[in-house]
């Protein structure tokens, strides 16, 4: 948000001695005695963009959840090989013969060049897979971030030092490279390369790998916040009053790090989605026939598609852009709602 | 940013999205697509036979290519760098091609027509294609005079002995195994026991196996008749290696050339320059020419790049031709439909035939009904699709490729040519009759884009017929090691096999001889059928290639139609194009691509 | 003396010698929550060489007023009405370039926190020299020498060397001295000091205040001194203006206002201020309630929601009618002069003693 | 300051050391037996054994690691393929090339791609960011920030193929991206990389637009900036002399990280455009489970990242005296 006075070009809060800007005072009036949560909620509801993007995001999650239902109503599934079911729709190389990737009343989003899967259902299920994984990773990282970050921040001293060193070390890892390299390794932990790799194993591997290098940033932030909180009066008070650390952390600290966690996770989740897609794109993530967002991109980057059916690549592409944009906007709104002073 | 600003973002996001969608229109159908009639004629023409040439035919120099001129440089774009240059390590198509220019063996293929269709096997280093007095147990070769390595040293029988003995050394593990197996008289990889370290620790093959009585004579002695030896020796894999120039592992990067060209420089993955080998004497060589001064080979040239350049045909591209690269799918129709360009193209089959192997070592697969059901149900169209459609793949009827003597285009027992998507209905009926609906099929596939594509589609097709298909990916680079394990758990998996020489004797015995079943051997379906075995033995002894070919054909049809241990999928094809100033451009059926030996600059 | 029945909002005729004269100034910001009236109908004059102290709680609009004088507000969100005359020059409508000529030259400002107010990226010397180069068209060298001279004036030891230092190498007090040097480098006619001592500890405070006074003697410039500390005001200012919720509620000389305050709010301020000589056991009486929202200011007298003397006025005047402030010694309150006197004498003063 | 840099460099070395251990361990958990790869079609157990011996895979892992380290530092002649001068990462299982040589072969591609791209996206990104901040609230600002928002939400694996499809395959305006040696043919070098540069920098630039704008705006709200205005300094002067200086710090940080990871191999970009750089090398080496190569790429790439971090720290000192003199 922008506060009124200051030099042109840069809105800044009116007064030098850090009193809240007028509009915040305005809110104080109407929001007297509300909990921060309520305040945040009220502010958020006032933010139209935020609300709209929230709807979009929810829409995507619904798609993910309801994919089976939708495709049941739609009467198709992403596994049927229409290139063999309906050869007349394809040429010998498996490219739909009708223009625009064979979009028709029957195949709303057209057919995938190659085996001719139904793009619509494939996209639905692809979103389902990618979102599922991303959510899992986010949860895992948040948990790790909380545990390690808060511990380091609260206990400080040696623990803090070592956890911080670990964080530094992991941050020095070439992440993407590490993902690619370790995927087969992690997979091999579960199945000998001789046997089939069940989908769930790939999923678990993806989650593990991304989690392993995903939690540090949040961990750092939480460490910082906790470090700051630790010095605050009410914590001191709690300490003096002899509350056990566990209780202090639960009752005093955690409630106060909810904000950074929520904000961070709204930024992390889309990153995990794109990262997962990236891995599948490189062929180390989810593979055919399991539908997956990133895998659709790798299909879209094949000569066959780029040469003959450019339409195909827009379905995964555009849907992902919309998703990520919506999510980032949501993230901004959430942040503003929590902390109206941030001016960007 | 302020909230008001973010409204705008949202708006713009939507705008951008729609804009993207609008530009995303495309016309249907691939721009590839071959021309099947063409290919059929091609197939017809390729049903040629190959005779063994006599001493006269083996005399150099090779017959001039009509209109050939000497001099000039030809630049050669290639996709893959050469992983191996040591002849004994060469078993791969593109390496064999360059091998033709670098290395000479005891025998070689001499083109007897100028269209690359007719050949005979003649003596190359040897004075003839080999003489045998006892139906192929003992083969005698005499070396020509004036044959030298690039360093000027004469090629003697000692070098030839060394050549064959080092085939047994551990570091030689990529080349063809035929002659070693014949000498050791064992199938599979056990031949290595015969001379575990090769010649490098002072051990040598006894005269009872390989005899070199004098500097010019080499005698091979086998337990069984091996009428195909002249063919085998013509493989680059058995070309001469200089004994004193042998640097073992390092030889793979810098071999001593004996052919018309030698390596001036080789940057793996980047480029290679071949220049005239002054110590090569055309008078001794009945099959090679030395028209151009040098070949500039550049690697990492993808198909579409080389094609684009060659189609444009300007500057240096006018004198360039790729040995390996074929015209990419995207440009096929363009190239084939433009008469001016068509004159610069050659079309032909590669020697490979794709097939789905049914692992008969598994109980469930031993039921012939099940195998027939698979044969009916299996869609082969996914395979054709995955590799670029009819321009690159042709639905196969039998296991004998059009490039091999004994091909019959009309043979199609499972109706794949009519209905490549398979006939699940019929298959289902058979399964129901046999009460085998729901049979579990473990389908091993190569973990590559293509592999994933066709395996999923094939699985879908089989499932329609009532099979329960379990796909299992196999890392591409260990694929063959894994499917060739005796105890592998794959019921069906795809392999392709190219004849090492244009006779089904390099197809049927290695693939279907029940006694060749071994760890890592190529009898992937592990079929052990008495009739096949006995037929193999019988036909192997027929020394007249023509008669043999006819017999092999019959046996092949028996395997596909009555044994059903495999289902043929497709014949590999390719179209290649050259610059307008390239002369002597020929698609050689034996090479399985452009013949580099005949090229000259117009 | 005050006339409470003065006609509403009538501009008071500018004193001929008024150096700075603010007339019926209205400053309001557009925010998402609505329009905030930060300054609402403020008028005051300031003569050369005099010091005006502006007192008031946070958000009473004192800083806003002064930022507006310098034109340091963001036109995108702010609307300014009324007039600000500096030697007869209208500032509210002046062009940006005009204002730039004034800033740091005729009118200089000292900010509260010298650490954040000085750029960490440039040497103190350079930052002092910059405005001198700009306004005096001085050469780099001359400007530098001037900077050193100024540092010397504000009592920085070994100024030649220190000028080459960066702010973070200075102590808090020295920084504030540097700030002052920077403000005075072009010897301005008007110096606006926005709580210049709040961030400093008491001893340093005293030094800085003395410094300011000395310099004022030397340069003879007028000072607007903003603070919420009546003690400081007593020490520094000639006149006082008490601001509440964007408007002035009482004005007069230091003596008048501190000895005989007339406005309940001023009483509140005095109450809430501890004194060395006051009885340590007597409780401090903070002003009840919270500052009003400038979004929806209370009707009538802005102070009425917190005012404990409404009933004395009687009727609903406090809620309905806006009390006005006269030009000279006066206060904006509906209480009669007598009431004010008696209430202060009988109810407030005892508590202060 | 110098002491600080030295300390950081030492830290980097330690991290690299740990990294090498972790990576080494990681890859000896690799699912595929490298010897099996090399063994080829006609492979016997005996032969496999022999290969294990040649590759030293039969030794205990700590010993293998120790050998790896010593080779790295002092080179080795113990390789069947030939001598291997320091820094010796051994020979690739797959191509039998020296790993270090291969890395050096691939490096120019990655460097060209990265530096070229970096120039593009820094100029465009910072430029648009500054303009947006300068014209804050205007339509220009909203267009820039909005556009940046959308573009930065795109992925190279979408934008790349899209660009290829339109510019190369459909319209055939450009040649397929490829790396040509700069010294040999600058024009070809430029032509071959232009599409990757544009795609790469488009996405990165959009992030820098947002970053430089927001950090600029934060700076403009700094007190000292207001002081400068109060001194009568012109808006432009304050904008560029006071605000910009400060706004650079977060940007330099991010830039250091980006540059580091890109120099370590712009994996997806190189993969998408088929450029033979370090990133592509990494992917290939994984697919061939070519351990020495993979290890080499990993360490090299990590080194790049750490180097860039150190450079960034040094850069701070130039921007911010507080760091220099602390």
Blueprint of the fold:
The complex is a heterotetramer of chains A (344), B (602), C (353) and D (326).
Chain A: H1 22-31, H2 36-46, H3 48-74, H4 82-85, H5 99-102, H6 119-155, H7 157-171, H8 175-190, H9 199-212, H10 216-230, H11 233-240, H12 245-282, H13 293-300, H14 303-308, H15 314-338
Chain B: H1 3-23, H2 36-45, E1 51-52, E2 73-77, H3 93-102, E3 107-111, E4 119-123, E5 131-132, E6 138-142, H4 157-165, H5 178-184, E7 210-211, E8 217-221, H6 229-233, E9 261-267, E10 271-276, E11 294-298, H7 303-312, H8 332-337, H9 339-342, E12 345-358, H10 368-377, H11 381-386, E13 393-395, H12 424-434, E14 440-446, H13 449-464, E15 468-474, H14 479-483, E16 492-498, H15 508-512, H16 530-540, H17 545-563, E17 566-577, E18 582-583, E19 587-588, E20 593-594, E21 600-601
Parallel strand pairs in B: 1-4, 2-11, 14-15, 14-16
Antiparallel strand pairs in B: 3-4, 5-6, 6-8, 7-8, 9-10, 10-11, 12-16, 12-17, 13-17, 18-21, 19-20
Chain D: H1 2-28, H2 34-39, H3 45-55, H4 61-74, H5 99-134, H6 139-152, H7 156-170, H8 186-220, H9 223-230, H10 235-263, H11 267-273, H12 278-287, H13 291-319, H14 321-325
Please tell me about this protein's structure.
The complex is a heterotetramer of chains A (344), B (602), C (353) and D (326). Chain A has 344 residues and is mostly helical. The N terminus of chain A is likely disordered. Chain B is of the alpha+beta class. Chain B has a domain of 226 residues: Dipeptide-binding Protein, domain 3, CATH 3.10.105. Chain B contains 17 helices and 21 strands. In chain B, a hairpin with a 7-residue loop joins strand 3 and strand 4. Chain C is an alpha/beta fold. Chain C is built from 14 helices and eleven strands. A seven-stranded mixed β-sheet of chain C has the order 6-7-8-3-9-10-11, with helices on both faces. In chain C, strand 1 and strand 2 form a beta hairpin. The longest helix of chain C is centred in the middle third of the chain and has 18 residues. The N terminus of chain C is likely disordered. Chain D is an all-alpha fold and 326 residues long. Chain D contains 14 helices and no strands. In chain D, helix 8 packs across helix 10. The longest helix of chain D has 36 residues. Chain D is globular. Chains in contact: A-B, A-C, A-D, B-D, C-D. Chain C: One of its GO terms (biological process) is peptide transport. Chain C: One of its GO terms (cellular component) is plasma membrane. Chain C: It is found in: Cell membrane. Chain C: Keywords: ATP-binding, Cell membrane, Membrane, Nucleotide-binding, Transport. Chain C: It comes from Streptomyces viridochromogenes.
Core attributes:
heterotetramer, A: 344 residues, mainly alpha, MetI-like fold, elongated, disordered N terminus, B: alpha+beta, Dipeptide-binding Protein, domain 3, 17 helices
């Amino acid at each position: 948000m922008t506060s009124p006075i200051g030099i042109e070009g840069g809105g800044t809060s009116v007064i030098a001695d850090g009193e809240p800007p007028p509009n915040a005072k305005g809110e104080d009036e109407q929001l007297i005695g509300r909990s921060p949560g309520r305040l945040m909620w009220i502010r958020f509801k006032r933010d139209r963009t935020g609300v709209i993007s929230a709807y979009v995001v929810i829409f995507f999650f619904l798609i993910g959840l309801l994919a089976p239902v939708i495709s049941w109503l739609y009467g198709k599934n992403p596994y049927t090989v229409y290139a063999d079911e309906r050869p007349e729709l394809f040429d010998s190389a498996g490219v739909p013969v009708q223009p625009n990737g064979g979009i028709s009343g029957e195949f709303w989003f057209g057919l995938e060049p190659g085996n001719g899967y139904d793009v619509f259902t494939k996209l639905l299920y692809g979103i389902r897979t990618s979102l599922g994984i991303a959510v899992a990773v986010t949860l895992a990282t948040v948990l790790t971030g909380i545990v390690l970050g808060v511990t380091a921040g609260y206990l400080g001293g040696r623990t803090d030092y070592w956890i911080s060193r670990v964080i530094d070390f992991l941050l020095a890892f070439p992440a993407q490279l590490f993902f690619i390299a370790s995927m087969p390794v992690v997979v091999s932990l579960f199945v000998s390369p001789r046997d089939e790799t069940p989908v769930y194993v790939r999923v678990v591997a993806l989650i593990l790998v991304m989690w392993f290098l995903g939690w540090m940033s949040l961990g750092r932030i939480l460490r910082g916040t906790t470090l700051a909180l630790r010095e605050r009066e009410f914590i001191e008070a709690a300490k003096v009053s002899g509350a056990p650390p566990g209780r202090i952390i639960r009752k005093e600290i955690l409630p106060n790090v909810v904000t950074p966690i929520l904000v961070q996770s709204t930024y992390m989740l889309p990153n995990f989605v794109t990262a997962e897609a990236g891995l599948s794109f490189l062929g180390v993530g989810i593979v055919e026939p399991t539908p997956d967002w990133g895998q659709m991109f790798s299909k879209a980057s094949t000569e066959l598609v780029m040469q003959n059916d450019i339409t195909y690549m827009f379905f995964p592409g555009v849907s992902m852009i919309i998703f990520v944009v919506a999510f980032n906007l949501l993230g901004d709104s959430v942040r503003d709602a929590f902390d109206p002073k941030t001016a960007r | 940013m302020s909230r008001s600003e973010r409204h705008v973002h949202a708006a713009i996001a939507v705008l951008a999205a729609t804009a993207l969608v609008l530009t995303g229109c495309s016309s249907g159908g691939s721009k590839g697509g071959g021309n099947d009639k063409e290919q059929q004629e091609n197939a017809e023409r390729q049903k040629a036979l190959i005779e063994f040439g006599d001493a006269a035919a083996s005399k150099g120099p090779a017959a001039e290519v009509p209109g050939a001129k000497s001099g000039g440089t030809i630049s050669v774009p290639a996709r893959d760098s050469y992983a191996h240059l040591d002849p004994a390590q060469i078993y791969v198509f593109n390496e064999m091609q360059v091998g033709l220019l670098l290395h000479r063996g005891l025998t070689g293929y001499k083109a007897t027509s100028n269209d690359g269709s007719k050949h005979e096997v003649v003596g190359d280093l040897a004075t003839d294609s080999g003489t045998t007095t006892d139906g192929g147990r003992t083969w005698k070769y005499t070396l020509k005079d004036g044959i030298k390595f690039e360093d000027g040293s004469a090629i003697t029988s000692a070098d030839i002995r060394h050549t064959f003995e080092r085939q047994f050394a551990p570091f030689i593990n990529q080349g063809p195994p035929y002659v070693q197996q014949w000498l050791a008289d064992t199938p599979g990889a056990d031949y290595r026991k015969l001379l575990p370290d090769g010649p490098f620790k002072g051990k040598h093959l006894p005269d009872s196996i390989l005899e070199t009585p004098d500097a010019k004579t080499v005698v091979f002695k086998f337990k069984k008749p091996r009428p195909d030896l002249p063919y085998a020796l013509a493989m680059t894999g058995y070309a001469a290696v200089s004994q004193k120039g042998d640097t073992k592992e390092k030889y793979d990067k810098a071999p001593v050339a004996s052919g018309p060209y030698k390596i001036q420089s080789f940057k793996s993955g980047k480029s290679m320059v071949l220049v005239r080998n002054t110590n090569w004497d055309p008078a001794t060589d009945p099959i090679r020419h030395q028209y151009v001064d040098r070949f500039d080979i550049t690697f990492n040239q993808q198909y579409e790049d080389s094609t684009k350049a060659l189609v444009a045909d300007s500057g240096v591209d006018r004198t360039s031709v790729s040995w390996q690269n074929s015209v990419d799918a995207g440009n096929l129709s363009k190239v084939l439909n433009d008469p001016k360009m068509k004159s610069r193209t050659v079309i032909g089959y590669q020697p490979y035939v794709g097939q789905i192997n049914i692992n008969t070592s598994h109980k469930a697969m031993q039921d012939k009904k099940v195998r027939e059901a698979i044969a009916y149900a299996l869609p082969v169209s996914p395979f054709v699709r995955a590799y670029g459609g009819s321009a690159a793949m042709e639905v196969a009827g039998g296991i004998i490729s059009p490039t091999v003597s004994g091909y019959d285009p009309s043979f199609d027992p499972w109706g794949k040519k009519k209905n490549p998507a398979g006939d699940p209905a019929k298959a289902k009926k058979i399964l129901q009759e046999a009460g085998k609906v729901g049979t579990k099929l473990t389908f091993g596939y190569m973990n590559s884009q293509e592999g994933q594509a066709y395996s999923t589609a094939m699985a879908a097709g089989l499932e329609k017929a009532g099979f329960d298909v379990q796909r299992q990916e196999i890392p591409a680079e260990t694929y063959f090691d894994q499917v060739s394990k005796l105890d592998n758990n794959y019921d069906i998996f795809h392999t392709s096999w190219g004849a090492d020489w244009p006779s089904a004797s390099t197809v049927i015995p290695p693939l279907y001889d029940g006694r060749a079943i071994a760890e890592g051997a190529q009898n992937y379906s592990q079929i052990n059928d008495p009739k096949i075995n006995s037929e193999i033995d019988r036909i192997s002894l027929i020394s007249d290639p023509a008669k043999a070919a006819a017999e092999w054909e019959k046996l092949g049809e028996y395997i596909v139609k009555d044994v059903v241990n495999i289902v043929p999928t497709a014949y590999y094809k390719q179209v290649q194009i050259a610059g307008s100033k390239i002369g002597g451009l020929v698609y050689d059926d034996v090479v399985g691509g452009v013949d580099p030996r005949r090229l000259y600059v117009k | 003396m005050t006339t409470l029945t003065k006609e509403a909002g009538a501009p008071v005729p500018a004193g001929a010698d008024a150096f700075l004269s603010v007339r019926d100034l209205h400053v309001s910001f557009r925010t998402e929550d609505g329009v905030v009236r930060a300054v609402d109908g403020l008028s005051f004059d300031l003569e050369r060489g005099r010091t005006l102290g502006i007192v008031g709680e946070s958000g009473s609009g004192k800083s806003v007023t002064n930022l507006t004088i310098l034109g340091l507000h963001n036109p995108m969100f702010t609307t300014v009405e009324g007039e600000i005359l500096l030697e007869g020059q209208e500032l509210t409508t002046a062009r940006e370039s005009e204002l730039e000529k004034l800033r740091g030259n005729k009118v200089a400002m000292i900010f509260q926190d010298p650490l954040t107010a000085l750029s960490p990226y440039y040497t103190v010397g350079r930052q002092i020299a910059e405005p001198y180069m700009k306004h005096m068209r001085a050469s780099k060298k001359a400007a530098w020498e001037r900077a050193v001279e100024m540092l010397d004036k504000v009592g920085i030891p070994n100024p030649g060397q220190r000028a080459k230092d960066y702010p973070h190498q200075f102590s808090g007090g020295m920084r504030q001295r540097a700030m002052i040097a920077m403000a005075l480098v072009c010897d301005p006619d008007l110096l606006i000091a926005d709580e210049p001592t709040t961030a400093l500890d008491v001893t340093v405070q005293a030094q800085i205040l003395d410094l300011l006074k000395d310099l004022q003697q030397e340069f003879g410039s007028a000072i607007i001194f903003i603070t919420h500390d009546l003690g400081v005001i007593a020490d520094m200012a000639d006149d006082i203006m008490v601001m509440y919720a964007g408007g002035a509620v009482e004005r007069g000389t230091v003596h008048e206002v501190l000895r005989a305050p007339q406005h309940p709010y001023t009483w509140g301020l005095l109450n809430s201020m501890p004194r060395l000589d006051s009885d340590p056991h007597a409780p401090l009486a903070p002003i009840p309630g919270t500052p009003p929202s400038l979004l929806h200011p209370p009707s009538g007298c802005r102070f009425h929601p917190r005012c404990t003397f409404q009933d004395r006025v009687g009727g609903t005047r406090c809620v309905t009618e806006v009390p006005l402030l006269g030009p000279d010694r006066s206060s904006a309150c509906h209480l009669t002069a007598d009431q004010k006197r008696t209430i202060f004498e009988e109810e407030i003063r005892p508590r202060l003693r | 300051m110098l002491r600080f840099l030295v300390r950081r460099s030492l830290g980097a070395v330690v991290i690299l050391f740990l990294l090498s251990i972790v990576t080494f361990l990681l890859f000896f958990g690799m699912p595929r037996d490298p010897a099996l790869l090399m063994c080829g079609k006609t492979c016997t157990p005996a032969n496999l054994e022999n290969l294990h011996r040649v590759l030293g895979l039969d030794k205990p892992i700590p010993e293998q690691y120790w050998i790896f380290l010593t080779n790295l530092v002092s080179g080795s002649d113990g390789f069947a393929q030939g001598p291997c001068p320091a820094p010796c990462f051994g020979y690739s299982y797959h191509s039998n090339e020296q790993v270090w040589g291969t890395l050096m072969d691939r490096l120019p591609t990655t460097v060209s791609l990265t530096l070229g791209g970096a120039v593009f996206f820094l100029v465009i990104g910072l430029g648009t960011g500054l303009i947006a901040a300068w014209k804050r609230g205007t339509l220009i600002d909203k267009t820039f920030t909005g556009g940046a928002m959308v573009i930065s939400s795109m992925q190279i694996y979408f934008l790349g193929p899209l660009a290829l499809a339109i510019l190369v395959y459909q319209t055939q305006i450009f040649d397929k991206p490829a790396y040509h040696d700069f010294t040999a043919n600058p024009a070809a070098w430029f032509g071959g990389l232009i599409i990757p540069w544009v795609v790469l920098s488009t996405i990165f630039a959009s992030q820098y637009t947002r970053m430089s704008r927001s950090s600029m705006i934060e700076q403009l709200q700094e007190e000292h900036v207001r002081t400068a205005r109060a001194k009568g300094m012109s808006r432009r002067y304050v904008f560029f002399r006071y605000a910009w200086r400060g706004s650079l710090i977060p940007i330099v940080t991010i830039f250091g990280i980006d540059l580091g990871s890109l120099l370590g191999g712009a994996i997806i970009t190189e993969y998408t455009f088929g450029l033979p750089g370090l990133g592509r090398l990494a992917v290939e080496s994984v697919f061939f489970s070519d351990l020495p190569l993979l290890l080499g790429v990993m360490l090299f790439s990590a080194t790049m990242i750490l180097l860039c971090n150190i450079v960034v720290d040094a850069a701070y000192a130039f921007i911010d005296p507080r760091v220099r003199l602390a």
